[in-house]
Amino acid sequence: MVDLSASGFPAKATRQPDFTYIEQGFRWIRETIMLIYAHHQHPLPMVALIFMYIETLGKPLVRERGEKEKTIPKVSLFVQKYLPGLWESLRDRGDRDSLLGDVYRNGLVHQLFMKSGHGIHEKDERYVITGLPEAPLSINIDRLVPEFLEGLNKYYQRLKKDAQFLQTFNACMLESTRPPQGQGSQSDPPPRKT
User: Fold this and answer.
1) Which of 90, 104, 138, 143 lies at 20 to 30 Å from 45 by C-alpha?
2) Mean predicted confidence (pLDDT) in 51-65
3) What is the pLDDT of residue 192?
4) pTM confidence score
5) In a domain, 185, yes or no
6) In Å, what is the CA distance from 158 to each residue of 10, 35, 68, 72, 178?
7) How far is CA 70 from each of CA 60, 151, 160, 171, rounded to the nearest angstrom?
8) d(Cα 180, Cα 25) in Å, to the nearest integer?
9) How many other CB atoms are found less than 10 A from the CB of residue 158?
10) Closest Cα to residue 159, out of 68, 78, 57?
11) Which residue range forms the structural domain that includes residue 103?
């Protein structure tokens, strides 16, 4: 049985996460995406997961540049660096930052579907198709998934080799973790009056 509560990130920011937990987390991301993709039964949740991972992994990239850590720049910067095929295929498609960060990421996460009727497709050589009657723009999951997995591996290799980037990554992930409620966390809500 795997203990899914173990994040590898201690409650206090004074300690660094054990790298084996980071390695395990990246393995779980790869295996989850590969499992969903292998069956081609749940493409929308898979693409939503990919865009959520893209945003999370983009946070250290944006922080490294000293920019505001908003959703669109996190998604955009990760795609530029680690999914260059997707970035390039959108070159002539208008505002790539908003298309990826708002239409796809925000649409999938907040509305359970891409905004403005945009879509996903499979079994086509083209990374991006435009002008379809059912979708103004569609991203090919048969190109997105392999490129995301390759980009994920490159990102992970950078974490292993670049101590400064690993430190930035750890700081970003530590901010997102909190001790369980009821254990003295400052984020615990005040007791309710009855």
Assistant:
1) 90
2) 96
3) 54
4) 0.81
5) no
6) 22, 25, 22, 22, 26
7) 12, 21, 26, 16
8) 20
9) 16
10) 57
11) 19-174
Q: What is the DSSP letter of 112?
A: S
- Return phi, psi of residue 192, to 5°: -80, 140
Angle formed at CA 143 by CA 29 and CA 19, multiple of 5 degrees: 25
The set of residues, in sequence order, having a beta carbon less than 8 Å from that of 186 and lying 6+ positions away, is none
> Which structure tokens are listed for 42?
């749940």
Q: Show the tokens assigned to 148.
A: 């995301």
Strands (E), the chain: 119-121, 128-130, 137-140
CA-only gyration radius of the chain, Å: 18
Residues 14-42 pLDDT 10s: 455 568 889 999 999 999 999 999 988 88
Q: For residue 14, tell me if it sits in a domain.
A: no
- Number of domains forming the structure of the chain: 1
Q: Is residue 187 part of a domain?
A: no
